[in-house]
Design brief:
Strands 8, 9, 10, 11, 12, 13, 14, 15, 16, 17 and 18 form an eleven-stranded mixed β-sheet that branches. Strands 2-6-7-4-3 form a five-stranded antiparallel β-sheet. Strands 1-5 form a two-stranded parallel sheet. It has two domains: about 170 residues, CheC-like (Chemotaxis protein chec, 3-Layer(aba) Sandwich), CATH 3.40.1550.10; about 150 residues, no CATH class. The chain contains seven helices and 18 strands. The N terminus and C terminus are likely disordered. Helix 1 crosses helix 3. The protein is of the alpha+beta class and about 400 residues long. It starts with a strand and ends in an 18-residue tail after the last helix.
């Protein structure tokens, strides 16, 4: 008997499976299809869904019927059929029973049919495998390859899963090897990819966020008018730009109005919590050639970024949009709309459409409804300052 060595799964195996998948797909579906057509009648279609070294990734919460087949003195083969797959096969082999199938109450006859089918499959599969080892050897953990098939009744469309676990020691798959690069790098230089350009960020308390209104100007303290940050997947690069001074606005000290500095006493604990608000442009198109050659300090042409819409985000939650401006030596955003206010407007329009589609009703009821709507609208106008509630930031005001 070969010894089992406690060894972790080879990290190169997933890469090898990609190269070997074509071999599995050409061989084993044919073997399983031949088994199905021979044991039952033609009409069950078998398709390979996946190849894996981890059986836990393949099995769903559905129950499975497992058959263990002894191959040689070193190896076993395992065949697993899902409950839905068993029902499909039994209906094909024994006819419809008229009762829902329950794998927990499977009868002896049904067990014998499924076991007999699995044994028949194993005999067909063995014809495609390598001969057993002739000398003792050391086995390792994860030395099984698991093939998941979709079995489908072509007549009624019912589907199930069939998982075949074969030891690697009896497999000798062909691998698709690359002979070299099929394309030259310049072939892709003109191809574009989407990248994010982050202008900067600033820190706000929740209270200050709630008080934001259209036409307000938010100064991004962590920004530089001469550079932006390019984000592409996990890569972050700082790129230089030539600022457009046409968007510069004068900085005027305002002694009145709302205090956005955070110096005023917050209303409560939650209002004093600070969050980072980021401003970023819509995704821009950058060629792979320019992206590949990007270096620290290099100027990159990003094509009219000043005409793009600015999105304000807090923890990836869109809170509003605006226009890019320059205040002193920092970027700023002149707010054009607040996300919640925009949503409320859309809901009001949708409600109006629903009311128009309701049909005719009694005249007195319509007049009462109009009065109620008018009162509701007037109340809404008085409460317009509270654009954000605590639920926007998963905070509960009533818990204070």
């Amino acid at each position: 008997m070969g010894k089992l060595k406690d060894k972790k799964h080879n990290p190169e195996s997933p890469g090898l499976l990609f190269k070997e998948y074509d071999w599995y797909e050409k061989l084993f579906p044919i073997a399983l299809q031949k088994s199905s057509d021979g044991f039952f009648l033609p009409g069950i279609k078998c398709e390979l869904m996946g190849v894996s070294k981890n059986i836990n990734l393949l099995q769903t919460k559905e129950s499975y019927f497992v058959t263990k087949i002894r191959m040689d003195k070193f190896y076993d083969m395992f065949l697993r059929i899902s409950a839905s797959g068993i029902s499909l096969l039994l209906n094909k082999g024994l006819g419809h029973s008229g009762r829902p199938f329950n794998i927990e109450n499977i009868s002896e006859l049904e067990k014998n049919v499924i076991t007999g089918f699995n044994e028949y499959v194993s005999k067909i599969i063995l014809q495609f495998l390598e001969p057993p080892p002739v000398v003792n050897f050391v086995r390792t953990n994860f030395d099984m390859t698991h093939l998941t098939f979709l079995i489908k009744d072509e007549e009624n469309g019912n589907c199930g899963r069939f998982i075949l676990s074969v030891p690697d020691g009896r497999l000798k798959p062909n691998r698709v090897e690359t002979s070299g690069d099929k394309f030259e790098y310049p072939d892709f230089y003109e191809c574009n990819t989407a990248a994010r350009l982050v202008i900067g960020k600033t820190r706000f308390t929740v209270k200050e966020l709630k008080e934001l209104e259209p036409e307000d100007v938010v100064v991004l303290e962590d920004s530089d008018i001469h550079s932006l940050t390019l984000h592409l997947l996990d890569e972050v690069k700082k790129v230089l730009i030539v600022p457009d001074m046409n968007i510069e606005i004068p900085f005027i000290e305002d002694d009145g109005g709302k205090d956005m500095s955070g110096e005023s006493a917050p209303k409560n604990l939650w209002d004093s919590i600070e969050v980072d608000m980021y401003a970023e442009l819509d995704p821009v198109k950058i060629s792979l050639g320019n992206l590949k050659k990007i270096e620290l300090g290099q100027v990159v042409d990003v094509a009219a970024i000043y005409e793009n819409k600015i999105t304000l985000r807090v923890e990836n939650k869109v809170i509003g949009h605006g226009e890019l401006v320059i205040v002193n030596d920092r970027y700023g955003v002149k707010i054009t709309d607040i996300a919640q206010k925009k949503t409320a407007k859309a809901e009001a329009e949708a409600n109006a459409e629903d009311e128009n589609a309701q049909g005719e009703a009694e005249e007195s009821a319509e007049e009462e409804q109009e009065v109620e709507n008018a009162e509701g609208n007037s109340e809404g106008e008085g409460d317009g300052e509270e654009e954000f509630d605590y639920s926007d930031f998963e905070l509960e005001d009533e818990d204070i």
